[in-house]
Each structure stands twice: as C-alpha cells, then as structure tokens.
C-alpha cells in the first residue's frame, strides 16, 4: 500500500476528475503512476542500450535489414 500527500491544487484536480467521471481518485492515481512508470522504464532501457552501443558491447541493426528479415520491405 502507498499513501502520498498531493499539493492542494493537484488534489482538487484529481477530485474534480473523479466526480465528473464517476471513477475513484485511486483509479486515476494508479493509472497515472502506471503510465509514468512505463515511460520511465522505456527511458532507462533506451539509455542503457545507448551506453552499451557507445561502449561497443551491442551492435545496431539497420531498419531496412529488419524489414527485409520479416518480409515488410516495400
């Protein structure tokens, strides 16, 4: 379980959204956290891959090669 304190303006916005839609504040808080975590995880993964490429530990593959491999070239 997680308990957080929100700034008053954010709390009001969340409360208004919940009232307008008939959903709970918890629903929207969970949805927002989940989306932001997805974005953060993607960012950190991309940064990690870039570091590996720059260090020569990972090779890149041209988009054209991937498209050909999966029969998607034009």
**What is the straight-line distance between the termini?**
51 Å
Low-confidence stretches: none
Biggest sheet character = none
Strand element count: 0
Instruction: Kindly estimate the percentage of residues that lie in beta strands according to DSSP.
Output: under 5%
Class computed from helices, strands and strand pairing:
mainly alpha
Rough outline: elongated
- Proportion of residues in helical segments: 55-70%
List the secondary-structure elements in sequence, H or E.
HHH
What is the rounded Rg? 21 Å
* Overall pLDDT level: 95
Q: Output the number of helix runs.
A: 3
Plain-language structure description:
By secondary structure, the chain is mainly alpha-helical. It has a domain at 43-74. It has three helices and no strands. It has helices at residues 8-21, 25-54, 63-69. It is elongated, with a radius of gyration of 21 Å.
Which labels suit this protein?
74 residues, mainly alpha, elongated
Brief overview, please?
The protein is mostly helical and 74 residues long. 69% of the residues lie in helices and 0% in strands. The protein is built from 3 helices and no strands.
Set down the secondary structure blueprint:
Layout lengths: L7 H14 L3 H30 L8 H7 L5
